[in-house]
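// run 5 | inverse folding | seed 20
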């Protein structure tokens, strides 16, 4: 085999035909000719079966082969790309799942935040709002034996929102039992000032029933009480209660007896009082609380 010819084939894809001594058939090997050792009489060829060594004296023929077979082998052996595509698909799926989970968490946190803010505002309003009782005054009968009417002075708590007397209930307890639940009567007049005969003659208090309380706007600069029963921070109102109808058995509060009252507004804390009648009355107007 020509030495120069074989040297030119080094690194090329070749078709090698060999025949061992004593064999009747030839063998054909295709692969890349890696090296030719003329001194020891061997060639090194990289075929599909692996790297092999052939003796030069067994060569029958050697010639360059078809490069398309070489490319086909190269493509067949490059199977790592399939694994890379699978990994990429899994990675993209993980990113999508993480994005969906993050979106759900963000939406949930926003909903929780908005609800927490709403609950916080409502709680702050309920805690800071409400009515407080400034004083309780009684008005006796002509014989000064029992209290027939109550005048309860009320105003809003500090920091309270505006409240409506029209949505306010007054509960009266006597002998540990609730004897009446009162609200505003549409027939009871509201006035911005008390007449010269006093608060118990400002309204026609004899017409206040057992289920109603009358209202006097004692301090009402913006006329909110007079116009719509609404109370703002600086307003002061007096609620008139007819005890002769509420305590029908005694026609009023006897001497030495006590009643408990609770004013519950539409929002916020309630105002409570305990009014105890003295054992004797020196005047018809009596401070009870």
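// decoded
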């Amino acid at each position: 085999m020509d030495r120069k010819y074989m040297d030119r084939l080094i690194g090329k894809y070749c078709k090698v035909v060999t025949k061992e001594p004593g064999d009747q058939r030839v063998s054909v090997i295709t692969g890349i000719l890696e090296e030719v050792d003329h001194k020891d009489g061997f060639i090194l060829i990289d075929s599909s079966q692996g790297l092999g060594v052939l003796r030069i004296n067994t060569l029958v023929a050697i010639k360059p082969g078809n490069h398309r077979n070489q490319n086909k082998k190269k493509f067949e052996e490059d199977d790592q790309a399939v694994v890379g595509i699978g990994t990429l698909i899994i990675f993209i799926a993980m990113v999508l799942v993480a994005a969906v989970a993050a979106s759900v968490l963000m939406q949930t946190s926003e909903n929780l935040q908005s609800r927490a803010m709403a609950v916080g505002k409502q709680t702050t309003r309920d805690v800071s709002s409400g009515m407080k009782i400034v004083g309780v005054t009684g008005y006796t009968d002509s014989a000064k034996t029992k209290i027939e009417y109550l005048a309860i002075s009320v105003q809003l708590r500090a920091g309270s929102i505006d409240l409506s007397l029209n949505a306010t209930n007054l509960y009266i307890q006597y002998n540990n039992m609730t004897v009446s639940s009162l609200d505003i009567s549409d027939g009871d007049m509201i006035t911005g000032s008390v007449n010269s005969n006093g608060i118990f003659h400002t309204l026609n208090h004899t017409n206040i029933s057992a289920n109603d309380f009358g209202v006097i706007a004692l301090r009402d600069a913006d006329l909110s009480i007079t116009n719509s029963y609404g109370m703002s921070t600086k307003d002061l109102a007096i609620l008139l209660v007819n005890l002769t109808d509420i305590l029908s058995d005694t026609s009023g509060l006897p001497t030495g007896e006590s009643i408990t009252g609770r004013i519950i507004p539409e929002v916020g804390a309630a105002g409570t009082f305990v009014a105890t009648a003295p054992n004797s009355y020196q005047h018809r107007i009596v401070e009870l609380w």
